[in-house]
C-alpha cells in the first residue's frame, strides 16, 4: 500500500484469504482438516457472522451457518483445490490499512474443497449446537454416537445401524458427501460418547482426537492477497501476492512459524533498539515491516508476487 501511494496510485480493492491446513498428503479425513490451534475455536469460527464490502455494497452473513452457504470456489493455486468463505468483519481493515476509498474489501478463510459441505452436514444434524443437551450431561447414563444421532433426529435409539444411516442421509439433504463424512468420522458407530454437556463441546472433544496431527505429519499455511490498483494515468492492475509455508515433520509447524517468528523478530528488534516507538504498535511502518519481511525470508517464510494488467 505504501508503495502504491508513494507512486501516486490508489487502492481499488483488497481481497485476502488465509488458511492453516494439513499438507495435502496429510489431508486424509472427511473434513480434509486437522487442528493446528484451538479445536473449539476452529469449529466455532465456521458458525460465526461476517461482513464485507463488494463493489461498494456491504454484505452481511448471519451467524449460525450462513458462512457455510457463502463458500466460494477459489481459482488461485488450483493444485491445492481450495474453497473460501468470509471471516468476521472485513470492513475494519478499510481504516486499519488506510484504504477507505476501496470498493471491495474482503478477508476470508481457506479450506480444502469439501470442508464446508461436511460441516453443513454436522450443522443439519444439530451437532454444532452450543446449548446443553440432557443426553450429554457428564454424569448421565452412557450413550453411543449412533444412539445420540437417533435422539437428535427424534428417533428411537434402538433402530438398525443401516436405518440410522438412511435417516442421516435424508437429514443432510440426501448428500452422499455429507453422509460419508459423518460415517467416516465415526458418528454412526456404537462407540461411547465422551459427554461434554453440549453437542458442540462433545463433538469438538471427539474431533480433537480424530483430527489430530500424527507423528511425522506436517501442516501448511496458505495466504493470498489480491490488490486492485489504479495508477495516476488511469491504468489498472491487480497485484497477486502468494505465501505458502510448510511445517517441518517432527519440527515447527507452519502455524507456529508464521505466528511465532514475526513476534520473535519484533521482540528482538525492540531489545536491539530498532523499534523506538512506544505503546501498542501495528507493523505498518516501513521501518518495522521492511526488515521484518527480510528476516522472515531468512527463516524460509517468503512471498511471491505477480501482476495482471486490467483492460480499460
UniProtKB/TrEMBL annotation:
Keywords: NADP, Oxidoreductase. Transmembrane segments: none annotated. Residues 2-301 form the Saccharopine dehydrogenase-like C-terminal domain. InterPro entries: AASS, Sacchrp_dh-like_C. GO terms for cellular component: cytoplasm. GO terms for molecular function: saccharopine dehydrogenase activity. SUPFAM superfamilies: Glyceraldehyde-3-phosphate dehydrogenase-like, C-terminal domain. One of its GO terms (biological process) is lysine biosynthetic process via aminoadipic acid. It holds the Pfam family Sacchrp_dh_C. This is Alpha aminoadipic semialdehyde mitochondrial like. The lineage of its organism: Eukaryota, Metazoa, Ecdysozoa, Arthropoda, Chelicerata.
Amino acid at each position: 500500500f505504501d508503495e502504491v501511494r508513494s507512486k501516486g496510485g490508489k487502492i481499488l480493492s483488497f481481497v485476502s484469504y488465509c488458511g492453516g491446513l494439513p499438507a495435502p498428503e496429510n489431508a486424509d479425513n472427511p473434513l480434509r482438516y486437522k487442528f493446528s490451534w484451538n479445536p473449539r475455536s476452529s469449529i466455532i469460527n465456521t458458525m460465526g457472522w461476517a461482513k464485507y464490502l463488494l463493489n461498494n455494497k456491504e454484505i452481511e452473513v448471519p451467524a449460525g451457518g450462513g458462512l457455510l452457504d457463502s463458500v466460494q470456489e477459489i481459482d488461485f493455486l488450483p493444485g491445492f483445490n481450495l474453497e473460501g468463505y468470509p471471516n468476521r468483519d472485513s470492513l475494519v481493515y478499510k481504516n486499519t490499512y488506510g484504504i477507505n476509498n476501496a470498493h471491495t474489501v474482503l478477508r476470508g478463510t481457506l479450506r480444502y474443497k469439501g470442508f464446508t459441505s461436511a460441516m453443513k452436514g454436522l450443522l443439519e444434524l444439530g451437532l454444532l449446537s452450543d446449548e446443553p443437551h440432557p443426553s450429554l450431561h457428564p454424569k448421565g447414563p452412557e450413550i453411543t454416537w449412533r444412539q445420540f444421532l437417533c435422539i437428535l433426529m427424534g428417533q428411537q435409539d434402538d433402530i438398525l445401524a443401516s436405518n440410522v444411516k438412511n435417516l442421516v442421509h435424508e437429514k443432510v439433504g440426501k448428500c452422499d458427501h455429507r453422509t460419508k463424512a459423518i460415517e467416516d468420522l465415526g458418528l454412526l458407530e456404537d462407540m461411547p460418547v465422551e459427554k461434554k454437556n453440549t453437542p458442540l463441546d462433545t463433538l469438538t472433544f471427539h474431533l480433537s482426537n480424530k483430527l489430530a496431527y500424527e507423528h511425522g505429519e506436517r501442516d501448511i499455511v496458505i495466504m493470498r492477497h489480491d490488490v486492485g490498483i489504479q495508477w495516476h494515468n488511469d491504468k489498472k492492475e491487480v497485484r497477486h501476492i502468494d505465501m505458502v509455508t510448510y511445517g517441518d515433520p517432527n519440527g515447527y509447524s507452519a502455524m507456529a512459524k508464521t505466528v511465532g517468528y514475526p513476534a520473535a523478530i519484533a521482540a528482538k528488534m525492540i531489545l536491539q533498539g530498532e523499534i523506538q516507538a512506544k505503546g501498542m504498535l501495528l507493523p505498518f511502518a516501513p521501518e518495522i515491516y521492511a526488515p521484518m519481511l527480510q528476516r522472515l525470508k531468512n527463516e524460509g517464510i517468503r512471498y511471491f508476487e505477480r501482476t495482471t494488467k486490467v483492460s480499460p
